[in-house]
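Quick one: structure for this chain?
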Amino acid sequence: METVIADAAYEGRFRLAKRYIEEGDVVAFHTETVYGLGANAFSDEAVLKIFALKGRPADNPLIVHVHREYDIKPLIDGEPPYAAALRRAYLPGPLTMVYPSTGKVSKYVSCGLNTLAIRVPSSPTAQEFLREVDLPVAAPSANLSKHVSPVTARHVYDDFNGKIPLILDGGACGGGIESTVLDCTGEVPQILREGLVTREMIASVAGDCKLYRAQTGEKPKSPGMAYKHYSPRCRTAYFTEREGAIRAYDEEKNAGGTPCILCEHGKVPFLGGRETLDLGGTGEEMAQRLYALLRKGERSATLLIGIEPEERGGCMAGVLNRMRRAFGAEHGTEES
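Got it. Here's what it folds into:
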């Protein structure tokens, strides 16, 4: 199979994407967060193709994507007033909302749960694609399972060349980390996965917002809850301070390796000229750069060393969640 990267100059790309979706194929498309790997959410066969292509665990639910005018009422069994207010405030945008499901989409989308996660991306490429298709598109991130999420069409191509027919190229993703996933099935909204829409932003509209903590052995309620996730294909180590990172770097270098340190901008001048990848200084910069730098690091480093950023607030909870999972350090901050 030939995999075509279709940018804005590619004539008829959305009609072509619609044809592939209607035929049960899988198409990758740009969103404002990361690229998605989409299929017809009503088709069992098409949804199962996503799991097979990614090597995705069968208990890891998917998110359904729709355009901003799509009527979601037939898909959900009620909506609390705070959820309607949040939709008005933040959609289209990087917020996924989980509702009680009416069971209209494929049972494989929600992996046996009685809920459905719905997202309305703000990317113009995604919106035009979803309007053309005009049905719910189930779409996880367009990367092989547990690999670093893709923020360019080339990242998707690197993982799926020859395996999918089409990538709708919308350029680099501006947000850089996946959407916030919010459980809207209770009296108070509860964040299942942190992202660019923060707890404070949600509480400012809904009046309150809780943060869900997964229990050991519990079935995932949301994508992105695996311990080791978003992971580069090289050895990694993770530290909360630069001294340990420097020791690990020098040991690897002395052993003939090619180490590299991923850290926030303020730490770069204190690393003595060692090879670094600069995440930036703000939460927004770090979110935007994280996955691209993880992919860059895996191509050249024998050991990629992460130093936990000191920056907090805003979207940093989401950045830290992704960074710790990428380095296998979500449940602690020791070397992994």
